[in-house]
Amino acid sequence: MKNETGIVCLGLQSVNSGCKKWEERYPIVAQSLKEIAEAHAQQNPTFNNPIAYTRLTAAEAIKQLRNLGYNGEEVPAASTMADILNRLGYRLRKVVKAKPKKKSRRRTLSSRI
């Protein structure tokens, strides 16, 4: 709702409505998840952004949380776990290994002489 001054007034309902994020509801489990993800994380080789890439899948994260003794509502489904890991700054992508450079044609010709 806008008033005459142009200031948008929000009611308390809009501030307090909606579900809390999983990290807010279970901060201890979220901290354990961060520790697990950090153990599997790898920094972007170009260091141009703070995103850490991880080989940890959502299913593996769930499995490791359950091994730590967290069960029931504390551990979300796999699709939700993937979203949580993305929100925490871990991208679920395969880490690209360094590829060897191809031999140049000039180099192969000079080695034959």
What does this protein structure show overall?
With 113 residues, the chain is mainly alpha-helical. The protein has a domain at 20-96. Helices cover 45% and strands 8% of the residues. The chain contains 6 helices and 3 strands. It has helices at residues 12-16, 22-25, 27-40, 58-67, 78-87, 105-112, and strands at 41-43, 52-54, 90-92. The chain has a 3-stranded mixed β-sheet. A hairpin with an 8-residue loop joins strand 1 (41-43) and strand 2 (52-54). The mean pLDDT is 76.
- Let me know the number of strands: 3
Radius of gyration: 23 Å
Average of per-residue pLDDT values: 76
Range of helix content: 40-55%
Structural class call reads mainly alpha
- Separation of the first and last Cα atoms: 82 Å
Q: Report the biggest beta sheet as strand number plus sense, adding barrel if it closes.
A: 3 strands, mixed
Strand order within the widest beta sheet: 1-2-3
Q: In terms of per-residue confidence, which ranges show pLDDT below 50 for 5 or more consecutive residues?
A: none
* DSSP summary: helix tally: 6
User: What is the helix/strand order?
Assistant: HHHEEHHEH
Specify the overall morphology. Answer: flat
Q: Tell me the fraction of residues in β-strands, as a range.
A: 5-15%
Topology:
Layout lengths: L11 H5 L5 H4 L1 H14 E3 L8 E3 L3 H10 L10 H10 L2 E3 L12 H8 L1
Parallel strand pairs: 2-3
Antiparallel strand pairs: 1-2
